[in-house]
Model the fold of this input.
Amino acid sequence: MILKQTRVRVGSAQKLLAHITSMKGNQQVEILYGYPTLPLTGDIIARMNDRKYGNRHIILSPEFDLNPKQLKFALSLIFRELDPKNGAADNYLLIKHHKRRHDGEHDAAHYHLILNETTLSGHQLDHRMSFLKNEKIARLCELKFGHPIIKGRHNKAVLHQLQADNYHSEAASLIEITKGPPAFAAFSSKQLRAAERLGVNLPNIYYQISGATDAAALQKSLLEVSKMEGISLLHLPKPRIFLLQYEGKTIANLFKFLKTMEIYNDYIKKFGTTQFRVPKHYNQNTFANSQKDL
Done:
């Protein structure tokens, strides 16, 4: 399961609501609990308490469909972590989205959960160590549901936190994912939204490139991507930079799409460094700086 959460600033409730209720890209959008006006209420409460965040937007994306009991379990973990005072458990908006996944293999529904950042009683949701909490909740759900365990960025910290919370058997089951380097996200939700606004199917490009198992397959994938309308690939071996751009706007760092750097090294040996190189007229400093936030 992938779990992400974002604190939404006051004044953005309408935009948030439009996003989570839109049918664009979805086969079905279903409100499972709550009322669509909840994000607007979050802004009002936050303003009353002179706070800048109105809502918390949480996305739950499981590997397989969740039954009602499993969904209830996942929500209970979220409420317990974010709101120990239990003021949010009765006041939330839960929307189910159903669409075909970009990998073409899965079609499990994902969920958008909206909580008011400030509850009616005036206390705020906990936002400390949110990335760690996301992974802890996701790993517990995977173990509980029998879903594949996904390696995250904070595996050792998750293990220690589970032990501190007396989830000893669950922690023991996750020892294997603490071995080796942590996983890193190929692109952020901010990059995904930016790509969508430009009309670029970033997940589809990711699956094309990440699916390459050798240098020849990588070469084929890169050529196919480079032929897409408006897309350009800019490559600078030293320092190693490989950018995906759309009409001159940087979208993503392609190095993060590769499963192993060995494939890239083999690609360089077999096909050289002349393809997708930075044009001579291109400002090298600007090029290097453009990938810092990717």
About this structure: The mean pLDDT is 83. The chain has eleven helices and eight strands. The radius of gyration is 21 Å.
